[in-house]
Specification:
This protein has 234 residues and is an alpha/beta fold. Helix content is 34%, strand content 16%. The protein contains 8 helices and 7 strands, in the order ααββααβααβαββαβ. Bound molecules: zinc ion.
Amino acid sequence: MERPLDLIAGLLAPVRCAICTGELPASQRVGVCPACARRWPAWRCPPLPGVDNRVACGPFDGLLRGALLALKFGDQTWRAEGLGHWMAHCTRTDVPAPPRTAVVMPVPLSRERLRERGFNQAELLAVHAARHSGRALDVTTLRRRTHLSSLAGRNRSDRREILGAYVCTAPAPPAVLLIDDVTTTGSTLEACAAALREAGAVTIHALTCAGADDLAPPLPLEPGRGAATGHTES
Ligand SMILES: [Zn+2]
């Protein structure tokens, strides 16, 4: 349990941008700073079989890449709340936006990888994206069957293996918002979508913090989007 003085110090400490670690404006208690929000509006990603719409908050590059690597490998899990908050904001600018009833689900890790890392970065992001977007969270239905060493540079038979790597342990909700930290080829999201559809999901949106494949130009800003950094969700 935190001591009262530590709690007070925590409340008085400046709140940092989850991407550049710069101090956030006084009116903002969580998220990314105005400069980062302007630099990375939501980006549309190439279509994937089984996924109705896929959006990345930004390209896997520069400070955003650094922030995600720090979250995943650098023990900087504090970044998850700000990034999840930012992802929640991106769900409001998707075209078409994921339904309000969409249940947020992280891409699961294998048991081996979870043991090794101690946490699932996609789940950390999903927890905060769900909370800040007012959607339900489900971290148990979608499971990973096997551990595959790396998805990079895999050939076609490996890709078939990936497609069978996920399974649902219960009926899936009709609408799902899949969350991951970064996509490269999209095979993982495609495999998750296949498992979800088999379990009854009808509408599947995917949202990643970053995309490493070909991203289309930013989605058009909506009125009020300029308030991206001062938005009011908790
Ligand atoms: Zn920033």
